[in-house]
Write a structure and sequence with these properties.
Blueprint (H helix, E strand, L loop, with lengths): L1 E5 L4 E5 L12 E5 L6 H26 L2 E8 L2 E8 L4 H29 L8 H34 L14 H34 L1
Antiparallel strand pairs: 1-2, 2-3, 4-5
């Protein structure tokens, strides 16, 4: 029995030698080693990306809804207020990055569904796994950065500016502050799901 193997593509070729004096025809047998799969990780991968998509969409929609009119009194003068998320660069950044993260998560889910319909591996190659890992890390850091910047603005609106007469803007504008806070919280939750996806990507890489 002679065998030849190729470690790159997993191909194994075996030739059975007949006994001396036998008229048996040589028949090569070919067996292809299947790449290792992680079926238990496919469901968590789908769940984490779906959750990241949902949280990113919630973050974006809540922030876009953060608009309110009100007024406050300073030095006996009533001043009208109008709060809108588009007035802050940090809040605009959160909306844009949330939209990008949602689009990225949706694209990954569509690719997973396409691979599943073809009945092939969800992560077929190491190169694809590395691309997933890089993309998940980029968007996880982006969501964390945007959420942190927006949280600083929201905290300033809630606490006011010390050593000045400017009051807590969340008292006359409670709806705006509540929606902003909810949007920022969803952004951090989306970031955590994307970070979880990076861990799953690393496990995939270790099994490919």
């Amino acid at each position: 029995m002679a065998s030849y193997s190729n470690g790159q593509n997993g191909l194994e070729l075996g030739i059975q030698k007949p006994a001396i004096g036998s008229n048996t025809v040589l028949e090569p047998t070919i067996s292809v080693a299947v790449a290792p799969r992680c079926p238990r990780l496919e469901l968590p991968m789908v769940v984490t990306r779906a959750a990241a998509l949902l949280m990113a969409l919630l973050s974006m929609s809540l922030m876009i809804s953060a608009k309110q009119r009100g007024s406050f009194i300073i030095f006996g003068i009533q001043i009208p207020l109008y709060a809108n998320w588009s007035f802050s660069d940090s809040l605009e950044s959160l909306v844009g990055i949330s939209a990008a993260a949602a689009a990225y998560s949706l694209a990954q889910l569509l690719l997973i569904a396409h691979e599943s319909l073809k009945k092939v591996h969800v992560v077929p190659t190491r190169r694809y796994a590395w691309m997933l890992l890089a993309g998940d890390q980029v968007f996880a850091y982006a969501m964390m950065s945007a959420g942190s910047a927006a949280a600083a603005v929201a905290n300033l609106n809630r606490t006011g500016i010390q050593h000045t007469a400017l009051p807590n803007f969340c008292k006359p504008l409670p709806r705006f502050c509540d929606l902003s806070a909810a949007s920022i919280a969803c952004a951090f939750v989306s970031c955590s799901f994307l970070a979880t996806s990076t861990i799953i990507d690393v496990i995939w890489l270790s099994n490919l």
